[in-house]
Prior knowledge:
The chain is an alpha/beta fold.
Amino acid sequence: MRAKWLWLCVVLAAIVLATLVVPASAQTGYKTKHVFVVVMDGVRWMDTFGDPEHQFIPHLYKDLRPLGTLFTNYYDRGITVTRQGHSTIASGTWQMVPNGGPRVTRPTFFEYLRDEKGIAPTKAWAVFGKAEYSFLPYSSHPAYGEKFACSHINGGGKDNPVNEASAEGDVGVLNKVVEVMKQDQPDLMLINFGYTDHSGHIAKDILEYQEAVRNCDEQFWKLWSAIQADPYYRDTTTVFFTNDHGRHDRDFHSHGDHCPGCEHIMLLAIGPDTKPDTVVSKETLEIDIAPTVGELLGFQTPLSTGSVITEALTQYLGVNQKQAVTEAGRQAVAMEKLADRDLVRVAADHALATWKAAEVPVTLDADLLMHGMLRAHAETKDEKYLDYVRQWVDAHKSDTQALVVNVIVDMPQTVRQQYMPIAKRMAEALLALKPEELTRLDGLLAGGALGRMKAATQEARFGETGLTLVKAAVEKAGPTVKDGLAYSKDLYALATAASPYSQEEAIRKAFTVNLFRALRGMKEQGVLWSDATASVINIAAVLASQRGNLLKEYAELKAGVAFPAEIEKMTVPEATALFDGEKPAAPRRQIITTIFQRGKQGMQFSRDMLRYGVDATGAYGDGSMLAQGGFLVAYQKLPWRYDGNTWPGTKPVSVGTVDMGPRGGDK
């Protein structure tokens, strides 16, 4: 009897264990155990299923279409570039990340899958013919991110078998995918065939582009055949054949706007749970793929805004309800709930309740708080924030303070005039300051204030003395990056001081060198520094520099793009010294690239990410005056973010007309 009981226990334990290790998709009621999302990069609907003759996609049309569900009104309503398209596909949210820009800002289906199912990174793969500018394997969302990254490979140049620069590169993508299928047997793959888009950009005539489409169609067919030949994948794999974006209607060489050619793309879904030989005309969107993948594989996509594509399914079981069922999911939903408030108003109200204006001393912390309140007034039109600043100025109008001058100059025009006599009196007193008697910080603040007064009054005397003070200040030793907040505050003062004198190369150089050192403290573009307060102060410095267009010449380095003058005149040893022991091959180029990517291209994403630092009470970071004021100055919600299912967009951008060949567009 005891032996039978032990045997029964063993059997029951085995059953329980088996239930735990079987993929969740096996418990959803769907036959699908694996999903491949396969992208033919940058091809218009009119060049695939929208072509009445289907001459460039014989396999997709004749062999694959009858097996699945074709969507005739499938759209990318986003920015219609590669990084955006793939980021939108993977996250189920509209994204505005530029090529070569920051990471996708919401979790990807890879992150959701790995988090909820606890699978290894080798069970989720991204294979891209295009280089890193096209896609990165995890999001910047603080609740998810790198710990849930997928395995991935990006293409290289023509010497790399996986590349976007040749038809052979697409063959290399296929070969790599088959290799991964055999080696790792992933449950989810995102695959990019990049030559179609590349050829569209460089083709001398449309025939080259069309031939690239035909070649990719061949690779799609071979991939499907490989899936059917593999017992692990056969009859248990759903494939979405799609595009990331299209191309202009008239000029096939480019894309990126909201013309029909750029937005209207293909989607064909084939698998054991999709309807065969079916055509759906209902509008379907790029954000809908990720939640549909979650539905089929049995995981939730709590932050996705798309919908499950039920029209493709033989039966809809409602598995993916976008519920937060994991610790990361719950944390993400809670963070978004706090972040979706009117954060400028919430943070400004917290400041009103925390510090009485008349009792706030004249410090750099106060300068940021007052500028933050001016920003809150500009954003909300609520007079209480402007009244707060007026109370502070009134409390210190008898002082001689450069910071008070800066705040007055930045007041709204109608109010500023009332206080300009006070500012002018203070500025006249600052004219008597001697550079050698001032600290670096005091010299920067006084010189910057005089520069602002020169612009406001057109009186040259303020600018002349201010320039002398700033030139002397930048020659004095300042804090180092290791000094933390002291360095950030110095950088903010330097930016404020340099902006009125942006024509002075030595001053520009001092700012850009110090900014570069600060930006090196970021892990990558589009994120924040490890210290919450340093993050807002450093961003405030970048914003202050915009008054003088100090970073105007820092751009993506392409052929024919000149170095900014202050970098051009740097010696290589001098530039190398800024890397703290590292020895980059091209240090001056690296300085420019870092400033462009982190200080310009990715800055709006960094500003938006500050929203995760405001707690339920409205306090940012440690709740200090410096942090709160810095947040109010630095935070900016992305001009269009992730809400809703449609792109508010702009009118289609007019494009040029070229010879489209025998299937030309407008003649």
